[in-house]
Input
Amino acid sequence: MIGRLALDEQLVALESALSRNSILLEVLNRAAGLELPDWYLTAGCLVQTVWNVVTNRPATSGIKDYDLFYFDRGDLSWTAEDRVIEAARQAFADLPAEVEVRNEARVHLWYEQKFGTACPPYDSTEAAIDSFAATTCCLGVRLEAGGRWRIYAPHGLADVFNLVVRPNPVLAPKAVYEAKTARWRRQWPELTVMKWPEA
Output
């Protein structure tokens, strides 16, 4: 079982699994060309690719979008972020997938209006990844010089390979976690979804 391998072996297995998703690889390669500061491809597209590989589904099955985060606090205006979004839209235009690009330095400006709870300003893309509703999704990958993969996985990879989803009650409300996991279980019924902790 991959989730019981040594961490270095899990990292190799992760790269191997993600490489089965040709769209994900293309997004990674094109994202590297955008030269965004502190960027990562992150969240669902990564873990869901692994779930697909582990459960013998097509690698792209059920993946709603590809989340591309970057961090630039030099200009927190919507205009600056929109310029990046438009450049990315052009870069990914011919791919059969939606790529969602967000400047994580701006999230605190709109998060409360959308989710009903305040979000303190992040100090990095990694900090944003740390706040996902499920620890299993706290995962980021980017390509660095020479094509080397940089992998950020603050909670490890065992749950990803073992199809376990754990809540991460640091920011996102319970309703967000429950809505996401309900959708995921319809697509991947093999998942073990842990309950949101009681107050």
Summary: The mean pLDDT is 94.
